[in-house]
């Protein structure tokens, strides 16, 4: 009986030992491969410029946008840009003129922010996470009055090409 009991214990021990012998070593292999590098071209070498993903903030004046070539290569190294804001008050009908002619005179406020070389009146930051994506934040943005409608346009370029956005109305 002792021999049978010893044989059963040894068989059980062998089965338990074999059951835990696997190749799973519970070691974390670490993070997978990083994101694919984004192909970029410096703005001075760009042969075409397209402005996309433009978002204007009418309260702070900040604008975010992306630059790419026609071949969809991200453009990095932007240093010169121009941003224009136009604020329009509620239109007023002027009826002081004789006859049936009534005119509206659109009075407006304009704010212009320019960066050319070292002279800048805004901060321009390129995203490290998304090459070719920029945030432009004007210095001293504000209105004297309270505009009902705000419109904005952005212009960027190099020595040979300039890209501009259309004058866009900002929804507040």
Automatic annotation (TrEMBL):
Taxonomic superkingdom: Bacteria
Protein name: Lipoprotein
Organism: Ferrimonas sediminum
Lineage: Bacteria, Pseudomonadati, Pseudomonadota, Gammaproteobacteria, Alteromonadales
Protein keywords: Signal
Signal peptide segment: 1-19
């Amino acid at each position: 009986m002792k021999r049978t009991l010893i044989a059963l214990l040894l068989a059980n021990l062998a089965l338990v030992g074999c059951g835990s012998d696997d190749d799973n070593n519970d070691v974390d292999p670490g993070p997978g491969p990083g994101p694919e590098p984004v192909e970029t071209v410096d703005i001075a070498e760009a042969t075409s410029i397209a402005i996309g993903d433009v978002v204007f903030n009418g309260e702070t004046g900040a604008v975010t946008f992306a630059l790419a070539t026609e071949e969809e290569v991200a453009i990095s190294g932007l240093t010169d840009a121009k941003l224009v804001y136009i604020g329009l008050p509620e239109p007023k009908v002027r009826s002081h003129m004789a006859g049936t002619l009534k005119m509206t005179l659109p009075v407006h406020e304009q704010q212009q922010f320019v960066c050319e070389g070292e002279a800048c009146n805004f901060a321009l930051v390129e995203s490290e996470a998304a090459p070719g994506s920029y945030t432009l934040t004007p210095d001293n943005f504000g209105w004297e009055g309270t505009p009902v409608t705000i419109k904005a346009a952005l212009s960027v370029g190099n020595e040979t090409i300039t890209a501009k956005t259309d004058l866009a109305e900002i929804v507040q």
